[in-house]
Prior knowledge:
Blueprint: E1 20-24, E2 27-32, H1 49-54, H2 65-76, H3 89-95, H4 103-110, E3 114-119, H5 139-151, E4 154-157, H6 162-169, E5 175-178, E6 183-185, E7 201-202, H7 209-223, E8 230-233, E9 238-241, H8 247-261, E10 267-272, E11 275-280, H9 286-296, E12 305-311, H10 317-326, E13 330-334, E14 345-347, H11 350-372
Parallel strand pairs: 3-4, 3-12, 4-5, 12-13, 13-14
Antiparallel strand pairs: 1-2, 5-6, 6-7, 8-9, 9-11, 10-11
Amino acid sequence: MTKQNVVVSEADAEIMNMAISVAVANSSLFTAVAEKPPVGPPGYISISRKRFMNLKNLDSFNGAERMNSWVDSMRASSPTHIKSSSFLKEDWILHHPSALDMFEQIIDASKGKQIVMFLDYDGTLSPIVEDPDRAFMSDAMRKTVKKVARCFPTAIVSGRCREKVYKFVRLAELYYAGSHGMDIKGPPKGSKYMKVCQGVLCQPASEFLPMIDEVYRLLVDKTKSTPGAKVENNKFCLSVHFRCVDEKKWNELFMQVRSILKEYSMLKLTQGRKVLEIRPTIKWDKGKALEFILESLGYANCTDVFPVYIGDDRTDEDAFKVLRERGQGFGILVSKVPKETNATYSLQEPAEVMDFLQRLVEWKRQSVRAHANL
């Protein structure tokens, strides 16, 4: 196994000594020039390979002051640490208006097309909680999602393993895409919207399972000395939750994770909302999962399909980007604070997500009744 430092993602080039231009809705609204080295985009650990290699051996830095400084900057980029003052909220809302306020415009855009719903789980259908094992969705939300699935093809796309998401949601009529889309299974045979593949199953990262299991055991052993840290095995990826980790222990936890991953060149590390995500380096993400599900439904090259993706995490941006590039449907970011995003609209919390879904169901029912009366 090749030893190579691949802890960080090469998502953005030359971010350590240049100004950051924040692009919102494909237009630059504001540019921030930092005197200190700026951090990467919200919720993403990024440093260019050229800059990283120039550091030579991070482990041998005297006193690790520079490493700590970099980690502090990276931590500050987390969505939970970004202050709304970093953005002009009013300007951001103009470019990402509330999906509730724009509901009629959304419906107008979808007329004559087949709506397909894609929903993230944590922070979208359920609130963010300290214990990830207790991220339960409300009964009201479950009933709402069930109604949505009766009206439109619906998929849950999550970073959690598919089996765990299913235990939370408990609705058999949905598509489930776990492990950031690397484990996809469709509804059972006979489902209303299943047109092509019955019970379709996609697992593009199967060859990584032994490696992921091995890293999981190492992480559990290494992080048990850090109070509050929790390692979650999501089958095709791993999550190291640090929501309950003391700020003083954060650097230690990050270094522990990094020390393990430098032995595994086929895995990459990114940061989400109070979680470090470890995934295979294959070109597969939530955006690819969205495209795969659309193809499974028979909508691969259709112009009359209208995908809607609702999510709150950095990893959902891959799906938002796909929708922008396709020029079909739109993404909705769930967030109370402005963030750089490829989503078109916004909602503030799961309660607003439920409101939006309920309005969508009611519109569909009224449309069916009106058509029946013609």
